[in-house]
Fold this sequence. Notes:
Keywords: Signal
Region (Disordered): 213-233
Protein name: Thioredoxin domain-containing protein
Structural class: alpha/beta
GO molecular function: protein disulfide isomerase activity
Domain Thioredoxin: 34-172
Distance between the termini: 41 Å
Strand order of the largest sheet: 4-6-5-8-9
Amino acid sequence: SASDSNPPGRGSKGKVRLDESMMHGPRLILLSGVLASTGAYTYEAPGRDPVSIDNVRNSEEAVRLTADNFDDAVDGKLVFVKMYSPYCPHCREMAGAWNDLARHYAGRDDVLIGSVDCTDSPGGKRLCGRHRVMGLPHVLYGDGNHGGIFLEEYGGDKDFGSLRSWADEKLVPTCNPGRLDACTDEERVLVETFVAMSRSELAAAARALEGEEEDARGRFDESHRAMQRDHDAGLTEKEIKIAKAERSIRLIREVMATKQ
């Protein structure tokens, strides 16, 4: 099978998987599915030269983030954060590209390129646990307001060109409860409406919108089969309805996150 072809501890897309079968590496301790071990990100044998590990850590040119400085550092910033371990082979492979990215954005006050050492106890480890990191490298991007609750996982290639292209496109202000200045008038009204609602009301509204989104997809499929000649017009109507529903659902979930 595909899983059998991966060596122990290897995941897909160049990640080191957290796997208790890695018997020759540091022991893993998972608490409620959240990382709680200082050395769970490697299948290498213990006893690696501490000096070489320190050299890996010290070579990081991005802003070093821990649980102690993360919230203040990312507040108001557009963020691209790499969560890594100096023991992790895939992390070391992307280290040069990440340093290039940090240098590329060094002059931007509104953008933060950061690095979190998930084996650094206690600050880095605690921060990786907070973000439920289950494999490395783990890269997040987005708006840093509200302690990074709006950050999303980056799943693309990890060479400098891919990272820079993604950042240039995605690290732009987007409407959310912590950045109303990026909202259109319509979006601002939506956010203010959602903020005034309770979590149970928000959950019900999200379910209703998800139903509307599904109905829009179903209606389009039916009309498309019956009226192929109206395909383009139907497609446009479908995309508009789905986009509006998805935007509202995203804003609802972001508002709910601020109410936790």
